[in-house]
User: Fold these one by one.
Assistant:
Number 1:
Amino acid sequence: MSWFNNLKIGAKITASFAIALVLMATFGIASSLNLKNLANDNTEFYSEILLPIEHISSASTCFQRMRGNLRDIILDNKMSDMLNHQERIKYFQDNLKKDLAEFEKTISNPELSAEYKDLTSKLAMFENDNNKIQMLALSRKKNEALQLMRGEAFQLSQDIDASLKKLTDKSSALAKEKSDGNMKAANFAINLTLVLLLLAALIAAFLIAFFKKNISGIIEGILGE
């Protein structure tokens, strides 16, 4: 560093502060970028992974509640209770459709897309049986309603349950995959930050040692100027 020794004291101090500022700026920018990337990863994890699981889980719950009320509309004899079950069926059916519509917006995986299309097709067929069962039950044709519910509608409901489970399992698998990737990114960011911090500390220690070694010359330079 002969070039540094040949500088005047003012230039030496200015150069030292400049080096320190560059180090701090580099460390700060690198840390900020790492934190921003981690924040983006967390946002994507929620919107692309956790939110879809929430919607598909809610859809599954709505379907089970809808089936429960469909069973009760057949079993109950009081018309007011039957009409109440009919309202509940519509409520859960509407919420099921809302949850699935929100889930569809998040689909980017081909397997999820194919399974979702299969699910919506089965739900459309089940909706027809659902409407028929309600009409039969409200018309007091309970035996016919039970026969339909225990036959075609039952098989469709089993298939729908299987599709909902596949969507939940696949979404959970994607969540784990994304989580593992985020963990690797976080570990890399931490390690990079530690390396930069160590590098900054080593350079700072070198500058301190250098000035300590040349302090007498610096003081003489100050007095001489």
Number 2:
Amino acid sequence: MKKFWLLIIFVFFFFEFSISQIKNERCLICHGVKNFGIAEGGKFISLYVSKKDYETSVHGKFACVSCHVDVRVIPHLTKLRKIHCLQCHFEDNVVGAPVAAKPEKYKESIHGRTLAKGKSAPDCKDCHTVSLCQTDSEDFMYQAGISCQDCHSGEKNLPARPSAEICGACHEQSYVDDFVGKQKQLRELIARWNNLIPEMIRSLKVSSSIAKFDEIRKMI
């Protein structure tokens, strides 16, 4: 029985040691190839990681497996769990991850609650978007003292899309004019699409002619 437990302890420590010895160079054998990726849902998803960008990023001193903790062997044959910044960036964390922007508040935000429901929503990296969080500083809006709510709050403090008036409170007139112009163009494009929908449906029922669809496309 004693020998059995010694064997278990040996295997455990050997296993943990082997995981800690997985170097980034081994991960980059595959992930360092530019065209490396997978096909999922009919789309190609790139799994490429630039060695240079990673090593010069704020996370460059860490091993890949520091975050991808479910990697046990290389190559790993199963899909890894999605990681989240809050694995390290929380109050009183022991790894020294910065928390100046109160990242735990993300879970309480409209984006965090939407993502928790399994729906699409902006994540941390969508705003902290320098390659691989290449800088440890906050994004430029935060540095300017502008919070999400300053632009995206509507009636009763509910989330809203910024209007020209909100943009004009800080930006110069030329920016506002450009904003209004693009907004008008987008509305006109949507209206044209809506007007063409009955014709497109009729064409689908009557004919599969490519020439007919080319004719419709030119009208847009």
Number 3:
Amino acid sequence: MLSTGLSARIGLKVYGDNQLVCERLATDVEKVLREKLQGATSINAIRSNGKPYLEFRIDREAIARYGVSVQEVQSIIEVAIGGRNLTTTYEGLDRYPVRIRYRRELRDELPDLERILVSTKTGAQIPITQVADIVSVVRTDECPSRRNSLCQLRNHDQCRYRRNHPG
């Protein structure tokens, strides 16, 4: 199932237009599989929606005062949190990306992220909170998946199955 985005041997995707219905159906399927599918282990309905996200709301007036562009601020956020591949190293036939980002202890908590530094036009370093608000958001009404050009919410069920289970 790895090619479909699931890491289990057996998986089921539930698609629909309503997150609550998708989640309810996925948990219903989980219950049925637990009751009826002998030999199945690790049966889990994966809830992929409603997770918290961080939003960096860039203050365009503030960045203009400091002579910084939106692209520069976004680039700093990208490198600090997600990282960026700088180059590739080769070891025999294997290729490995060389990635740069803040150490985990410098990006794990919201107060840590508030200390990300932005370089101004004059070369001064200011905390990102002077040019952006960082807001924790729980998104539930977005479109995490496109299928047949339609916006659809989705949930997953996955399980492991032992072949030689008696019964």
